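Module 6 notes. Inverse folding takes a fixed backbone as the condition and produces residue identities as the prediction. Think of it as a translation problem where the source language is geometry and the target language is the twenty amino acids. Below is one complete input and output pair. Work through it position by position during the lab.
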């Protein structure tokens, strides 16, 4: 009787999940910044295309990648 660890997902799925998590982290990192130290001064950089369009696209792509990783079939051995 072997005491083998059985993982829920295959190695390929975990790699895809890692890519998805990296995309999500990158998206949130791109959203940061653009603020101002003085609350009375408005910084228009907060509405840059990077923060409004590109960063949320990375986050959504990361979540879509996670869904693909979860639905990816485990290869039979």
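Target side of the pair, the amino acids:
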């Amino acid at each position: 009787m072997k005491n083998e660890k059985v993982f829920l997902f295959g190695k390929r799925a975990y790699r895809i999940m890692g890519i998805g998590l990296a995309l999500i982290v990158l998206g949130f990192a791109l959203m940061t910044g653009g603020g101002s130290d003085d609350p009375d001064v408005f910084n228009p950089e907060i509405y840059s295309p990077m923060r409004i369009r590109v960063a949320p696209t990375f986050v959504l792509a990361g979540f879509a990648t996670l869904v693909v990783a979860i639905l990816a079939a485990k290869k039979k051995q």
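Reference fact for the lab report: Residues 11-71 form one domain.
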